[in-house]
Amino acid sequence: MNTTIQIRIDQATKTKAQKAFKGMGLDLSSGIKYLLTQAGKADSLSYICDFGYMHNYNSKKAKEMHKEIEYAKKHAKRFSSVQEMFVDLEK
Fold first, then answer.
1. Residue 19 and residue 27: Cα distance in Å, rounded?
2. Residue 86: pLDDT above 60?
3. With a threshold of 0.70, does the pTM exceed it?
4. End-to-end Cα, the chain, rounded Å
5. Which region among 14-18, 50-54, 83-87 has the lowest average model confidence (pLDDT)?
6. Under 8 Å CB-to-CB from 88, ≥6 apart: which residues?
7. Is 46 exposed, middle or buried (0-12, 13-18, 19+ CB in 10 A)?
8. Beta partners for 47?
9. Residue among 73, 66, 26 nearest 50 (CA)
10. For residues 58 and 55, what is the distance between their CA atoms, to the nearest angstrom?
């Protein structure tokens, strides 16, 4: 049986959340359902990363991951297509 939750939130936060979830292919309701489901599975407070998923890493591990991501953004190879990437991988 489904239940209903009502929350009050300022318009700016709602709009930002809608935009973030839309970027992940979700509407607001589905995004909130996802977050509540993940919170129920974790049975603890989890961090929500800026790359869009929840995890149970401690803050030290999260900082290491962000550092690696920033390094990759600056120094990783760039490809103009997926096909070009696969050709490079096969070398």
1. 9
2. yes
3. no
4. 54
5. 50-54
6. 77, 79
7. middle
8. 55
9. 66
10. 9
